[in-house]
Write a structure and sequence with these properties.
The complex is a heterodimer of chains A (202) and B (308).
Chain A: H1 2-16, E1 22-26, E2 32-39, E3 43-49, E4 52-58, E5 67-73, E6 77-78, H2 93-98, E7 110-120, E8 125-134, E9 137-152, E10 162-173, E11 186-200
Antiparallel strand pairs in A: 1-4, 1-11, 2-3, 2-11, 3-6, 4-5, 5-7, 7-8, 8-9, 9-10, 10-11
Chain B: H1 2-9, H2 11-31, H3 34-39, H4 43-56, H5 68-88, H6 92-111, H7 113-117, H8 122-144, H9 160-178, H10 182-209, H11 216-237, H12 241-266, H13 273-287, H14 289-301
Helix pairs in contact in B: 1-2, 2-4, 2-10, 4-5, 4-10, 4-11, 5-6, 5-11, 6-8, 6-11, 8-11, 8-12, 9-10, 9-11, 9-12, 9-13, 9-14, 10-11, 12-13, 12-14
Classes of the chains: A mainly beta (202), B mainly alpha (308).
Chain lengths: 202, 308
């Protein structure tokens, strides 16, 4: 009986995993794009982007062939300081970050990441090579990626759609893209914490 | 050397001390270099501004510059070189008329190239048109206000273009620093500091020798032009209608020249040393009213302050 269960499980898994590279679309409600930067040596201040998305192709049997493209709306940045100058004289950090001193959202409303290579480093880990285009400049970046799982979504509302999950970590130097304001008081190094849950596009 | 390095690395150093010192030293050297040097003494302002830009923006921007803010550096340098060429070639007046039209067109086009290519909307067309007209006004008044400065009666007028620039740079710097761009604000204040460095030498030359140092095309295109570029950049990244109004009020200083100049030159002060000292101050006071009003409004009425 145990062998029958094992066999049934293997068949189910084989049926669940994509037979070849499939395209997945980021589920923003279960994904996060968080970052941190050091503030004058006192703390690491965290922030996130609320409006972003993307797609990727992925085949667990050939992860090196994966392709990723993420686009982030810079205006959606949120660092827990939403003070608006029009309301009282001091502009908050969110407003400042959107200004020409940092993300310059009027001139560059989005920034993107597009992968160029996936390098497998372990059973479920890899290096995600790609280009970040930010403030009109495209520069390479390498991020650490962990493949969490891929399986049909168990929640009935998702109707068993194939869902994949990844954890991405990395550190970039914002000055590489010309975002130099405040360095070194606000650190040049920015650490990225990206969690992606994505459903197969049909 | 540690103190110098700390000063150069500090914000007050980059925004004030360094551009002032560079402009002062360059202007002084040119002022002592005979007629040819005196003619292009306003090079000190441009040099102080570009050095400050290098420090504030942590280096020379890459070329071609991807950001509008980085184009300011190259356009400012180009304006300075153009002004120098015109002054050395004796083409200040003729070249000034031509480039007062061509420079704003070229600069505005380059700064908004991709938006223009994508099909500019009504707002952008209006902004470009207004900025072009403001530019023509600026260049006109930068040249016209110095008229007659080679005569004893109007020798103070030789200082007027730089005084114009000083007050509008402070105005632009204060407004943008307190609102939507600390970077633009810092650059504008650095320009005002550089102008201060030039003015100190030129004022002394005027007070002692009766004749201010040259401003010419070098000043108009290299220094006045730098202010215009910062104005363009500020308008294009401004975030609220109020910002446009405030920048417009600051720019009225150039129109205030129509009042300030006759008031300063017409003051019954005689021709002596007192007149040479007081007329520039009277001029500066009157032409500074619009920027001062804008700054007073945002500080005392709106309560704008620097972020913590």
């Amino acid at each position: 009986m145990f062998r029958s269960v094992l066999l049934a499980g293997a068949v189910a898994l084989a049926a669940a995993a994509p037979a070849s590279a499939e395209t997945f679309k980021v589920d923003i409600t279960h994904s996060s794009f968080v970052f941190s930067a050091n503030h004058i040596g006192y703390t690491n201040v965290f922030g996130l982007f609320r409006d972003w998305g993307g797609e990727f192709t992925f085949d667990p049997k050939a992860p090196e062939a994966s392709k990723v493209k993420i686009e982030v709306k810079s205006e959606s940045i949120d660092t827990n300081d939403a003070r608006v100058q029009a309301n009282g004289g001091i502009r908050g950090r969110n407003e400042h970050l959107r200004s020409a001193d940092f993300f310059n959202v009027k001139e560059f409303p989005t920034f993107t990441f597009e992968s160029t290579k996936v390098e497998k480093t372990g059973e479920k880990t890899g290096k995600l090579h790609g280009n970040i285009t930010l403030l009109g400049q495209t520069k390479p970046a390498v991020l650490d990626v962990t493949f969490n799982k891929v399986a049909p979504h168990p929640v009935p509302a998702y109707k068993g759609v194939l869902t994949a999950g990844f954890t991405i970590r990395g550190t970039i130097k914002r000055s590489d893209w010309g975002m130099k304001f405040g360095v070194p008081a606000v650190s040049d190094e920015v650490t990225l914490y990206i969690e992606i849950e994505a459903q197969e596009k049909k | 050397m540690g103190f110098i390095n700390d000063l150069i690395a500090s914000q007050p150093g980059q925004v004030a001390a360094v551009p002032f010192a560079v402009a002062f030293l360059v202007t002084l050297a040119l002022g002592l270099a005979g007629p040819a040097g005196r003619r292009v003494a306003a090079l000190g302002i441009g040099a102080g501004f570009l050095v400050a830009y290098y420090l504030i923006q942590s280096g020379v921007p890459q070329f071609p510059p991807p950001q509008m803010a980085h184009k300011v550096f190259y356009l400012a340098a180009a304006g300075l070189v153009l002004g120098l060429v015109l002054d050395f070639a004796g083409l200040t007046r003729a070249g000034g008329h031509i480039f007062a039209i061509l420079l704003p067109i070229g600069a505005l086009w380059w700064m908004r190239q991709s938006q223009i290519a994508a099909g500019p909307g009504t707002a952008l067309v209006v902004a470009l048109a207004v900025l072009f007209l403001v530019s023509v006004l600026v260049y006109w008044r930068q040249a016209a206000t110095a008229r007659g400065s080679d005569s004893m009666e109007s020798s103070s007028a030789g200082l007027f273009p730089a005084i114009q620039l000083l007050v509008v740079a402070i105005g632009l710097g204060g407004i943008t620093l307190l609102s939507f761009s600390l970077t633009n604000g810092s650059l504008a204040l650095a320009l005002s500091a550089a102008t201060g460095g030039y003015l100190l030498v030129s004022f002394l030359a005027h007070a002692v020798g009766g004749r201010a140092l040259g401003y010419g095309a070098t000043g108009a295109f290299g220094a006045g032009g730098a202010w215009l570029l910062l104005l363009y950049g500020s308008v294009f990244v401004a975030e609220a209608p109020l910002h446009y109004w405030l920048l417009g009020i600051v720019s009225l200083a150039f129109a205030a020249d129509f009042v300030a100049r006759p008031v300063a030159l017409g003051a019954a002060l005689g021709r002596g040393g007192v007149a040479r000292l007081v007329r520039p101050l009277i001029y500066g006071f009157v032409v500074g009213i619009p920027p001062a009003a804008a700054l007073a409004y945002v500080w005392f009425v709106l309560g704008w302050r620097l972020p913590g």
